[in-house]
Amino acid sequence: MLKELIKKDEIAAMKAKDKARVSVLRLINADIKGFEVNQREDISDEGVIKIVEKNIKQIKETLEYAKQSNNEEKIAEGNFALEVLTPYLPKQLAEEEVEAMLKEIIANGNYTAADMGKIMKEIMPKVSGKFDRSKINPMVKKILG
């Protein structure tokens, strides 16, 4: 399970005295533990992926602010955290692959621009954790163009 892998990596980082890596992995493990305590159940790999995605999204937002304020230290921290967390996500899909999926969904459903919600509902389960969600809406608009 992904949860055990992250925990094992945290322990390895502790032994290697890699404080920065330990810090990033500790946050993820805390989120996982929080989820399990709140839900009173073991977390699935999909749940772990959602937590990692959420953390990556927050890091990217922080990076944007750090870049605007030219805070080199925060930029370096954010890039390192992304480097640590990205391997825990499934293999990412290329834009071309997602675009092909969207074209197929739109063609099969005879969707128009008014059916944006239906298109999004159909594509999201297929790309969850494998593609940046924020890029999908503009892609749909471009295809329906």
UniProtKB/TrEMBL annotation:
Domain of life: Bacteria
Name recorded for this polypeptide: GatB/YqeY domain-containing protein
Pfam family for this entry, one: YqeY
SUPFAM superfamilies documented for this protein: GatB/YqeY motif (SSF89095)
Organism: Clostridium tanneri
Signal peptide: none
